[in-house]
Amino acid sequence: MSPYFRDYFIFLGQLLSGFRMDHERGIAEERRRDTAPFFDGKRPPRILDLANGRLRPQYSILKADGQKVYGIDRVNRSPSGWVDRSYQFARLLYGVRLRSSPSSSRGSALVGGDAAFLPFKDSTFDLVTSVAAFEHFQHVPAVVADLRRVLRPGGIAHIRIHPFTCPSGAHNLPSMEIPLRILPRGAEPWDHLRKRRIPVSVPLNEWRLGQYLDAFRRHFEILKSYCAMPEGAGMLTPEIRAELSRYSTEELTCGSYVIVGRRC
User: Which of 3, 182, 183, 221 is most buried by its number of CB atoms within 10 A?
Assistant: First the structure.
């Protein structure tokens, strides 16, 4: 039996209970709180959800709230097959608690495309949001540069990153906890930074927080950056801390890191 089989049922339960949507709603509120000071409310901002993913939670939330939002991802291209049908079912469960406004479908669309070569004109968007996608991009500088291009002058980027350096950052642990609290049997904390006995099977750039900040500083004024979700502090023994001394404590214990930038 696959070590992930049990987690499929846990994930299904989280969808049915509303836990997952509540978590995504929390992320949406975090974005609203961080970006509200930069919009006057006279007109709704035009929003890009970068790398919306197969489940599309933030795109769905923004659309249901009546926002004008475009979602872009390679997976938006001609979906077919049983995998896409299963995700379609999961999206229905995800959206059980959404309450759409009468105008929620106006001015919104899903687009198939590459995050580094966005199919939009210059200065198209007021706000770009991205959740747990940047850690997968293999050409981060190109993505950041194209984000700047499609944002209007003064436009805001709200980027939420799942750092590689946190306990769950390698995406190789069969666990559905958010944040990760208990390691699966046989797994060691930060194995991916130490012995890497558990293979890393998904594309990850393995960037550190300072690299992301430097990439954004080249094109944006950094308005704020912070850890939005601590993870793993209880696992960080003095012995592991000494072994991983090349990493900061924040890098090791931050499960979600937020960068808010304004296009210069």
Answer: 183
